[in-house]
Amino acid sequence: MSATNTGVPSPLDTALPTPVPSGEHEQCPVTDVLRRIGDKWTVLVVVLLGQRPYRFNELHRGIEGISQRMLTRTLRGLEADGLVRREVFATVPPSVEYSLTPMGATLLEPLSALADWAIENQPAIAASRRATSARTNNLSAG
Amino acid sequence: MSATNTGVPSPLDTALPTPVPSGEHEQCPVTDVLRRIGDKWTVLVVVLLGQRPYRFNELHRGIEGISQRMLTRTLRGLEADGLVRREVFATVPPSVEYSLTPMGATLLEPLSALADWAIENQPAIAASRRATSARTNNLSAG
DNA sequence: CTGAATCCCTAACGATACTG
DNA sequence: CAGTATCGTTAGGGATTCAG
Predict the structure, then answer these.
(1) What element of type H or E holds B88?
(2) For a FRET experiment, which of A46, A133, A137, B103 has its CA 20 to 30 Å from that of B77?
């Protein structure tokens, strides 16, 4: 199972030559993507759009806690990256439909792998965090 | 290839029942993990430690641009999550060795899938971004 | 060598109000 | 309905300094 250096061909090696890229402003694509999808809402939006196209307020209602501002920014970012398509229908109450592009849809697969890992390991992680904070409290208390 | 709703069993569906979890403070494990590994340095550290154990300053030199502060915080976070193990050797110049735990090593696999995707799609994403900013400039200029 | 502590800046985020 | 504009708060992150 160990993916350290035997099992996995590791495309990460390709992305991280030797000392780590990050020359100055040019980050490696992996980091770039991680920072994009690591924000607070992008994954939720992508996952919802993976089910079917959504309209703006539909997403707004579907993602509890998101503000219009952040929903707009998230969608704009995904659109700029070519992961989401935005279709405007000039109807009388104007409506806008968002959907994944083909490239956006392919993101669901690696995302699923990571989600799988997250779900599987979340209990262990949570337990580890609790143990750590308990240990920290002990140090404070004596 | 479409992973929209036919090909992939989508563990995301498990994580996102219908309207999206996020009751109030309790986020879904996927979002939680994404925010953890989506920060600026975690992935780089995990990838390096995936090759072999590293000492503190070795990591510091290996990851160009990281500050001691952030390296420490990143390692502490990973340690608290049970993904990284910290071993202190009480030698005369004290040395500390960091390595992936077994659970940490399993993270390399889904990370590779995502890295694969990132590397493969990075050109398209970059092109899309350029096209978008060019379009924005056109609106401003004309 | 391996950090912890402090200060400061910026980007991200959220709430609210306003517009086509 | 689908946004934009503005403002205030907070969290992430960097530089520097100090300590075991």
Answers:
(1) strand B84-89
(2) A46
Question: Which residues on adjacent β-strands are paired with residue A130?
Answer: none
The residue extents of the domains of chain B are 3-101, 107-142
Q: Which of B14, B18, B20 to mutate to test the interface with A (most CBs of A within 10 A)?
A: B20
Mark yes or no for CB contact A1/B80 under 8 Å: no
| Mean pLDDT calculated for residue range B51-65 | 97
* pTM to 2 decimal places: 0.83
A84: helix, strand or coil: strand
Which of B34, B121, B127 has its CB closest to that of A38?
B34
pLDDT-based confidence at A14, cuts 50/70/90?
A: very low
Question: Which residues in chain A have their CB less than 8 angstroms from residue B1's CB?
Answer: 105-106
pLDDT digits (tens, 9 = 90+) for A91-121: 988 999 999 999 999 999 999 999 999 999 9
Distance from CA of A87 to the nearest CA of B (A): 16
Cα distances (angstroms) measured from residue B47 to each of A113, B26, B43, B63, B117? 17, 28, 6, 11, 16
CB nearest A35 (choices: B29, B38, B127): B38
> Is residue A43 very low, low, confident or very high in pLDDT (cuts 50, 70, 90)?
very high
Spell out the CATH class of B3-101: mainly alpha
